[in-house]
Prior knowledge:
Blueprint: H1 4-24, H2 33-52, H3 55-62, H4 66-73, H5 76-84, H6 90-98, H7 105-117, H8 122-134, H9 136-158, H10 165-185, H11 196-212
Amino acid sequence: MINGAGRTWIRWIIMMAKSESRRTGRRPGSPDTRQAILAAARQAFAERGFDGATVRQIAAGAEVDPALVHHYFGTKEQLFLATMQVPIDPKQIVAVVTGGGRESIGENLVRTFLSVWDSPVGTAGAALLRSATSSEWSARLLREFLVTQMLRRVAKQLDLDPVEAPIRVALVASQIAGLAMMRYIIKLEPIASAKPEDLVAMVAPTIQRYVTGPLTPGSS
C-alpha cells in the first residue's frame, strides 16, 4: 500500500512530467502527427538538402520525438520519397537503366524513361514537373530527388570518373528534363505523338555521348 508521502511523490512526478512535456513541445502520436512530420521534412529537405537534413532536425520541426519519425516512415530515405510522393522505386529504375553497363546506358535510359512516363505513373511525374516550374521549394525538392536518388546512383553503378561525373549526369538530366517538358507538358509535335522507339533512336545517342564520350570538342 502506498502511504501519504508516496502518493505525494507520485503526484509530483506526474506534475513534472506534464510540465516537461509542455516545455519541450513534444506531440504525442495523433492523426495529425504524420502530416506534421511530412511538412517539417519538406522544409528541411528544401532548405538543407537530403544530405544536410537529419531525422532529429525534422522531428524538432514537427515537435515530435525522433522515434515517431522512424515509426511512421522508417529511414530518412523513405521519408524523403514520401515527401516527394514518388510512385516509383528509384533503386529499381536505376538497376534497369544501368543493367547493360556503360555502352547501353543511353538506349536503356531513354527507353525506361518513356515506358514509365507513358504509363499511368507518368501523371504523377508530370505533376511533379509542373510544380517544380512554378515553385522554388518544389524545384529544390525535385533537384534533390534527381541528384541523390537517381543520378548519384547511376554514376556509382557506372563507376564514372568522380571529377567528370557531376557534369556528365547534369547533362543527362538536362536532356531527359527537356524531353519530358516537350513531350508531356508542352506537348510539342511531333515529339508529343512520336513512337517511343523513334525517340529512343534519336535521343539515346546524345545521352550516350554525355556518359561515355568526350566532354569537350577534340578531346579523346
